[in-house]
Specification:
This protein is about 30% helix and about 25% strand. By secondary structure, the protein is α+β, with helices and mostly antiparallel strands. The structure holds flavin-adenine dinucleotide.
Amino acid sequence: MKKIVVIGGGAAGMIAAITAADSAKVVLIEKNDRLGKKLFITGKGRCNLTNACEDSRFFNAVTTNSKFMYSAFYSFDNNMTMDFFEKAGLPLKVERGDRVFPVSDHSSDVIGVLKTLINRNPNIKLMLNTKVSGIMAEGNSVCGVSLDREKRSKYEGKADVRNEQEETMIACDAVILCTGGLSYQLTGSTGDGYQFAKDFGHTIVNTQPSLVPFNIKEHFCKELMGLSLKNVSFNIFSGKKKIFAEQGELLFTHFGISGPLVIKASAYIHRYLDKDITLYIDLKPALSVEELDSRIQKDFNKYINKNFNNALGDLLPQKLITPVIERSGIDLFKKVHSISREERLRLVQVIKEFKLTFAGLRDFDKAIITKGGVNVKEINPSTMESKLLSGLYFAGEIIDVDALTGGFNLQIAWSTGRLAGICAAENP
Ligand SMILES: Cc1cc2nc3c(=O)[nH]c(=O)nc-3n(C[C@H](O)[C@H](O)[C@H](O)COP(=O)(O)OP(=O)(O)OC[C@H]3O[C@@H](n4cnc5c(N)ncnc54)[C@H](O)[C@@H]3O)c2cc1C
């Protein structure tokens, strides 16, 4: 029987270990004191573990290297994933946007079924509190992993613990590298695997925080903190090129903007980050310029003898009135009846094109995923095996593949983990 080491006990590592153990001996190594630390915080603690969409929507949601995912996805797609978890004793439900959650709404239950499958399997040895410090090769093939002595203090629930506590390396026939990316480093994803891959000549595509809020230069964001704008249109330009335009919900925060629209937009702007980026919010996307103008005229007639700052309450959220007025250039206390047509049209333009100054993405500690990673050109998409080192396999976020929110990133981890597990165990 082949012996396989799986490095990293996150979503990808756990499924890879469970799969490989069908026909091989597996050692699953995790540096934390428990499995699935990141999985625990997914979906706000509810774990949106996949998406029950059609295949084409899955591939559209994969924003980087979707073609690389064909074999992995078709060998273990979203339906098979749901089937796997339900058969393992986890009832699931489908919510808005086809997002799939455990019926219990507890991510701990997702981790629970995976842990049970791992602990019950005599072919899997689990090593917690154990940090891998490198991968070893003989000629052009993997032959083992080296362990970091200090971290290697505790083993969980398996036999012959005492002998192995002195180990500094583990010999094996194949390694599945599932160390994740760089986001939320407290969960253990500190990018160790990138260096292991580099040691054997792999290139790492520039890693950047993604699915992440934006920093904004304007100080008024702080005053607008907590204001959520529903059904606004968010438009992003690089020079004259429109790089994102969508309608939805946007949230002001103390540092800038967040919410579903912004998180989604962050997946599309990485290659423009070194260029000029301009952000516009259309605060009234349902109204054309003419329609908005006549709506404002109606409000102005209603508040004809009021000051300008008291005439916009029907149209805009209270907190937004001051920044809109400031941008319109119209005096706050000007009587509504004396506002000129030209001034009114300027107001219309401010509302249709409310401009914000982009000041960069938030850091990895606020990013749902890492964009970039091990170059897919150096991985065989049908097996997940390295093209540079025989016996080295990759799965999960460490690979340069990523997707939008909605359960798609975990599906990438399940699909690639499953395929790597099968191939690492079965390939001669
Ligand atoms: C706040 C948040 C919410 C999210 N919500 C969702 C969601 O609802 N749905 C969704 O699809 N995606 C979600 N994601 C993304 C998803 O969690 C990740 O894409 C996915 O967990 C990646 O799995 P992975 O196994 O590749 O990596 P990870 O889960 O990061 O696991 C890697 C593991 O490797 C271990 N490790 C690292 N280096 C070593 C080493 N040297 N030795 C031993 N062990 C090591 C780490 O400790 C870690 O446990 C969310 C992410 C975040 C941060």
